[in-house]
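Good morning N.,

You mentioned wanting to compare the apo and holo forms, so I went ahead and generated the holo version with S-adenosylmethionine. This is what I fed in:
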Amino acid sequence: MEKIKSILTEEINKKGYISISKFMEISLTDPEEGYYINQKPLGKSGDFITAPDITQIFGEVIGAWAIDIINKINSKSSFQIIDLGGGRGTLLNDIKRVRSDNSISFGFLEINKKLMIAQKQIFPEAKHYKSISDIPDAPTIFIGNEFLDVFPIKQYIKINKAWKEVFVTKDNDRFLYCYKDIEDKILFEENKKKFPNEADFFEVNTKIKKIVKDISNFLKRNNGICLFIDYGYFKGYGNTLQAIKNHEYVDPLSFPGASDLTSHINFSQILNESKNFEMDFFGPISQRNFLINLGALERLEILKKSTNSEKIKSDLDEGLLRVIENSQMGELFKVCAISPKNKLIPEGFD
Ligand SMILES: C[S@@+](CC[C@H](N)C(=O)[O-])C[C@H]1O[C@@H](n2cnc3c(N)ncnc32)[C@H](O)[C@@H]1O
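and this is what came out, ligand included:
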């Protein structure tokens, strides 16, 4: 963490401040010390836990959804399922259990060395890719659970009727926010018009455009679909930068390299970009409704019937409730999908 702080300080010293996106990029993906390169973020001993590690039902119903897509597309070539930012590999492994034959291959897009080892352990035959351009051509289902939220954002604030960008500066040993002239005016103008006139603060995820573009080009060439599940909003605006360390929210500027630094996803940004790249967009729908539409409650009953243990039954209930209850992850988390125009209507979005 000291090394990250000195890299950030050096960058800040160049002109007195750096953008939030640069602060996030260095903190999360510095090649030696970045949080997503070096740390073991997930699980009870990590900083946070995600839906696939809370309940197996999450991966199983998404697995059944994926098989339905494969049947609908009915391609002669065999499919691949790629987990974008695969975490501990639990989701892909649960998906594989739904249909384990040789006609589907599996892969992870991952940059975290420790997670790659965990993924290899749980799923030795899965392949690893560092970028979308490395993935071989084949009909593909991409799944990104809590993937987009890790990418850097820019923030804009209206002060005395003038728009400014939020930057990070340093005072003695502390990183602080400051407000300066906007760095990338084109990015700002392009996005400002998508927010309501009364907005006095908004954020832009700087990588969604490229990710949607790369995935759209890939899917237009190969057929398939991409599912994104994340915490976020469809309408609205505001400051959503957050940091989590040891399962607690902490100040986003206080633990660079040692806390998970993310923002909420603006699903309308995915919608706009998917339109730009001539893709169909489905959703967004709440995680609760998506999982229930895919049969999560029925799956729960089947699993409960398969055991006599009251403890296992209550753990199964508790796990599913956590991901579908509106007061927990059910409403905050949303789901959308993009696929090439007029090729497919995926289940779950009605
Ligand atoms: C919040 S975790 C979600 C993990 C997993 N999808 C889950 O649901 O448990 C984000 C994942 O994205 C990976 N990641 C972060 N930046 C990435 C990048 N630039 N390219 C690919 N994966 C990345 C992280 O290492 C981690 O596996």
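The radius of gyration is 21 Å.

Happy to go through it together on a call whenever suits you.

Best,
F.
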